[in-house]
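Illustration: Dihydroxyacetone kinase subunit DhaK.
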Amino acid sequence: MKKLFNSAETMVDDMLDGFVSAYPQVTRAETDPRVIIRQRNVKNPDEKVTLLIGNGSGHEPIAMGFVGQGMLDTNVVGDVFAAPSADLILDGITAVSGAAGSILLISQHSGDMINGRAATMMAQDEGINVLALPMYDDISAAPPTRKKDRRGAPGTMFIYKILGAAAEEGKSQVELFELGEAVRDRIVTLAAAVSPGVSPLTGLPMFSLPEDEIFLGMGVHGEPGVGRVKVGPVNELVDLMVDKLLVDRPIPKGGRACVIINGMGGTTMMELLTIWAETETKLARHGIRAISPMIGSYVTTQEMGGFSISLMEPTDDMLNYWCAPSDTPAFPQINYTKMEQTS
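Result:
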């Protein structure tokens, strides 16, 4: 497949050149050009807890697109589909940490966990007050009895946004960590892939899939899920996925669910809006109100075809933080009107 890059060696840094040039909310840290930090309306790190995450490139706009007021303070950018090194993450922690402390958010994948935990220990040895919060929500990766073995998936965006808004409000490091754990316990995600992404390094498809099949539960790097289903009307696929999500984490009749419909990079807005409509209808049949949706391609895998559905049963505080204003290059304005109409 044809791709538009200068070279494999420079593609990540070329991307970051464009990113910091285009968006006034962010800049590069002096400690390392792969560390992207918040530039606008920055608060004193001795008074505000700072939030960081490191991740590989190739999944944009996550997570560098979520750096800014009301969300992340730093994103540490690794190579394509590769976790940043522990030294690089340490540079990010050093760049923004203060007396109020920091929380390193880690989407649970092996490289991210190993390097993130190592960076956390290195920072603590240097006297920096930082805690590591693993994030996991992909129900296809492990059963409910082993939630801690699950992968991080697009539902982790609930954690970024809710903790970001709460940190902006002035909550302490301990309060934010406990809030992050509580949000994590309320999130479930399931994905469906219809066509492979293409690696920018090799130009080759990342996996193969027959034209009449959909892979259910595939991870963001092409990790295997729970099996294959035949292509059919999207309402049947959404019914199947929502049923699995609610079996894994039930929401009582009369309850409410915040919803993320995430495209993987090769799925059109026409398709994603159809999926949202079917998800809302399906939840309504279970007696659950779908509120404050986030619909778009935010956790991508190089034009992979497919989508994921994430559900979070919010408390009132979580819902307020989810809908709080933010100023980042890529996080959308959550639909207040939808929330008001359904509350």
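Reading the tokens back as a structure: DSSP finds nine helices and twelve strands in the chain.
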